């Protein structure tokens, strides 16, 4: 700490000299002033840590000096020297922010030295406090500015993501619409070629047309899926809600999938109670079931069985599950599985079909019907995909 600087203001030369000698001896730097005005000038040109001042002085008295000095430096410590005659004024000085007062003549110099030390310590503490508070305020405002800045950045990023997302959706829907018509026409033409309408085809030509036809079918499916997804998420395409005989609907979905999945050499079995009612859109729900059945078959070992079951849950929801004996879902892929175009990386083992839209569509449909969809998978131990729909009691009607 730098050497404390003290200003002694008194019109008595003796007092100035005695105090200066005493304080100097204690290791303080001391300046003196013979009247109030000189003291004020001295304080203005050089900040002091402590002012020791007489009350009655020529030019400027102690009390106004105290006020002026405090106006320049509010935290300066001030000790008032007072005779009995001016004791009341000294008390007034305390009210105005003086640290303490001392009766003249000073009899106990030791006590005076302790008072000076206390006043200086107080001054240092007040200063330190102020510095810390300042630092805190600055840190606070820096933090506030930083938070505001980050919030702005996040908002901007969010906005740009949102507009990108819209752009992407618009793009996908325009492209799908534009693709559908020519694709349908291509499929028609290929069909005519295959049927020999324009003349018998050689075996080689038949093969090529067959491949073209297959790819055409695949593209039509993709475009239809994309348009479906867009319609459902945009809230277009009304759902036809009815009370459904649920086991019958599930059976129908299984039967119509059989043809599709024959090539996988997988069998379906159904476990369902005789009567179970579900409120929903039959065609859409068959779409969900077909997606799950198709996935299960695709990812099952040949010769295995896929178990479809449906049951009433305790809270009157109806759960429908599709269990396969396939490879399960890789841990790292699980949180992305319902996203559009998401497909797990399976290397050589991945079946060639599909574009990763089936589960995204299924989720849209199930959630649109107020339900929930999920899966339980242990890697290597098969997967159970399930969806729950709010149940409907027998008596309720459409
Ligand atoms: N039963 C399952 N077993 C293992 N992995 C599965 C199963 N079902 C889905 N997956 C994984 O989730 C991915 C996404 O499935 P999703 O049905 O959305 O798309 P897809 O079957 O690849 O294509 P699409 O359904 O559009 O024809 C699949 O590609 C596969 O990686
Ligand atoms: Mg699928």
Descriptive notes:
By secondary structure, the protein is an alpha/beta fold. The chain has 3 domains: 5-107, Response regulator (Rossmann fold), CATH 3.40.50; 160-233, Helix Hairpins (Orthogonal Bundle); 242-390, Heat Shock Protein 90, CATH 3.30.565.10. Helix content is 51%, strand content 17%. It has 9 helices and 12 strands. The chain has helices at residues 13-25, 36-45, 62-72, 87-95, 109-194, 203-233, 246-261, 282-298, 358-368; strands spanning 5-9, 29-33, 50-54, 77-82, 100-103, 242-245, 267-271, 277-280, 305-312, 317-323, 372-377, 383-390. The strands form 3 sheets. The chain has a 5-stranded parallel sheet with strand order 2-1-3-4-5, with helices on both faces. Helix 6 (203-233) runs parallel beside helix 9. The longest helix is centred in the middle third of the chain and has 86 residues, at 109-194. The chain is rod-shaped. The model has no long low-confidence stretch (mean pLDDT 90). Magnesium ion binds at residues 291, 294-295, 354, 358.
């Amino acid at each position: 700490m730098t050497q404390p600087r003290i200003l002694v203001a008194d019109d008595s030369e003796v007092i100035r000299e005695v105090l200066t000698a005493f304080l100097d001896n204690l290791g303080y730097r001391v300046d003196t002033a013979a009247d109030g005005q000189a003291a004020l000038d001295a304080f203005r040109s050089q900040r002091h840590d402590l002012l020791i001042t007489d009350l009655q002085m020529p030019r400027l008295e102690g009390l106004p000096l105290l006020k002026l000095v405090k106006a320049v430096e509010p935290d300066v410590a001030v000790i008032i020297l007072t005779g009995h005659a001016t004791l009341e004024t000294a008390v007034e000085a305390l009210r105005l922010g003086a640290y303490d007062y001392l009766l003249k003549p000073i009899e106990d110099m030791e006590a005076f030295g302790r008072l000076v030390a206390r006043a200086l310590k107080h001054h240092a503490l007040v200063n330190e406090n102020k510095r810390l508070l300042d630092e805190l305020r600055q840190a606070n405002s820096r933090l506030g500015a930083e938070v505001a800045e980050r919030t702005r950045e996040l908002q901007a990023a969010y906005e740009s993501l949102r507009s990108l997302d819209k752009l992407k959706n618009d793009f996908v829907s325009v492209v799908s619409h534009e693709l559908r018509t020519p694709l349908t026409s291509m499929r028609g033409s290929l069909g005519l070629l295959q049927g020999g309408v324009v003349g018998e085809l050689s075996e080689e030509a038949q093969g090529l047309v067959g491949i073209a036809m297959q790819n055409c079918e695949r593209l039509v499916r993709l475009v239809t899926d994309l348009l479906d997804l867009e319609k459902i998420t945009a809230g277009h395409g009304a759902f036809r809600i009815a009370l459904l005989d649920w086991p019958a609907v599930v059976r129908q979905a299984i039967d119509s999938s059989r043809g599709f999945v024959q090539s996988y050499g997988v069998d379906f079995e159904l476990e369902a109670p005789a009567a179970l009612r579900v409120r929903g859109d039959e065609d859409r729900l068959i779409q969900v079931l077909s997606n799950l059945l198709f996935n299960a078959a695709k990812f099952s070992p040949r010769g295995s069985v896929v178990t479809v079951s449906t049951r009433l849950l305790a809270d009157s929801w109806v759960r429908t599950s599709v269990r396969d004996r396939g490879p399960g879902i890789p841990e790292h892929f699980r949180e992305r599985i319902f996203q559009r175009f998401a497909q797990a990386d399976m290397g050589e083992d991945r079946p060639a079909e599909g574009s990763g839209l089936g589960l995204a569509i299924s989720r849209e449909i199930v959630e649109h019907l107020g339900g929930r969809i999920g899966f339980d998978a242990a890697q290597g131990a098969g997967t159970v995909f399930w969806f729950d729909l709010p149940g409907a009691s027998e008596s309720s009607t459409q």
